[in-house]
Amino acid sequence: MLKGNFPLDKFGQLQTPFYYYDMNVLRSTVDEVERQAGKADFRVHYALKANVNPAILREVRRAGFGADCVSGGEIQAAIDAGIAPESIVFAGVGKADWEINLALDHNIFCFNVESVPELEVIDALAARKNRTARVALRLNPNVNAHTHHYITTGLNENKFGINLADLDAVMTLLPSLRHVQLVGVHFHIGSQITDLTSFQSLCVRVNEVQDYFLARRIVLPHVNVGGGLGVNYEHPNHFPLPDFEGYFQVFRKHLHLQPGQSLHFEPGRSVVAQCGSLIARVLYVKQGAAKQFAILDAGFTDLIRPTLYQAYHRIENLSSDEEERQYDVVGPICESSDTFAKACTLNCAHRGDLIALRSAGAYGEVMASQYNLRRLPRAYTSDELAAH
Ligand code: LLP
């Protein structure tokens, strides 16, 4: 039996909950990124934090994308997947010494540096190895991304980046740091951004920063504008592909590059969100005082986004075509916050039904935990299931 794109007969044999990755959706998304970024020779560094499943990293490598990493673990995962070290960027406000050393040993493309003390530590560690670290200054552009406050990063109140007001002091310090080489500037304003005008505001700020450097006769080899393009969580079937064309167009139109400068991007969610679903089973349908609960065998340990960010994920009953009813869809964890959706319309649910939580390819599997001593969810790709 097949409902939508889901091979239900195979799913019936698998232990739930698990992540399911539709590799056709992933491949067409990756191809679209390649096509649209390629029009202007933009460089893409896939943000591993969204998903590090090896099958997904294989597609990323096949497309020739670089990697955006935020930990030593991610740098290692990128290298293990065959992604070229010279295409790895490394961001994060709290890089530990061993992580900096790992990045130096692999001679990565660039450190995105978030503070003066970090710059000094990178210089000292590079000096010990007698190397020079390429660095980009991550600047806090103070641009509002108009997204959830937990995933807004580019405001003065956020912990990320170097404030523009401190740029003079950094530029004065830099010549004394002989083991770092300034090669770029980096920005990231937030995530799940669907209003492209926020990126336009970012371009305006980047142009101002470029003017600052030009006034000092400095042309940096690269500019990195981070990630953040949002996806359509309401209608993943109708809009499986984010608007990459419109997104890259904003930068082509509004960001003024200097001759020889390259423009870099760090998309995460937009590449992988729509290819993934969390597949769970209904354990119980419970009549509450005023409503019905569909209790799943998946909880916030498997997909934390609804609990943490009040995020919406479309939920479908794959096993039923019966008339629709309303349910609070919840998990088994001993906390009321373990709720995926309230008053959610589903085809009439029964014990054993398979449920899909859609658009879960980004920040799903990677954010799973073992709270309540639960098992981590497994993951299967459509390729694997088709092969059996
Ligand atoms: N670059 C930097 C420096 C970042 O901090 C991030 C995401 C990205 C790139 C990738 O952004 P994306 O293209 O995926 O929007 N767990 C949250 C999202 C956290 C995003 C953190 N930074 C969620 O589930 O919504």
Task: Give an overview of the whole structure.
The structure is a single chain. The chain has twelve helices and 19 strands. The chain is α/β, with parallel strands linked by helices and 388 residues long. It has two domains: 24-271, Alanine racemase (TIM Barrel); 274-387, Lyase, Ornithine Decarboxylase, Chain A, domain 1 (Beta Barrel). Strands 3, 13, 14, 15, 16, 17, 18 and 19 form an eight-stranded mixed β-sheet that branches. Strand 5 (66-69), helix 4 and strand 6 (88-90) form a beta-alpha-beta unit. The radius of gyration is 22 Å and the shape is elongated. Bound molecules: ligand LLP. Ligand LLP is lined by residues 47, 49-50, 68, 91, 151, 153, 188, 191-192, 226-229, 266-270, 305, 309, 363.
Short key terms for the protein model shown above:
388 residues, alpha/beta, TIM Barrel, Lyase, Ornithine Decarboxylase, Chain A, domain 1, 8-stranded mixed sheet, 8-stranded parallel β-barrel, 12 helices, 29% helix, elongated, binds ligand LLP
Concise synopsis of the structure shown:
With 388 residues, this protein is α/β, with parallel strands linked by helices. It has helices at 8-12, 23-38, 54-62, 72-80, 97-105, 116-128, 167-173, 197-215, 244-254, 269-272, 305-309, 382-387; strands at 2-3, 6-7, 18-21, 43-47, 66-69, 88-90, 110-113, 133-140, 162-163, 180-186, 222-224, 262-265, 276-287, 292-296, 315-317, 324-330, 339-347, 354-357, 378-381.
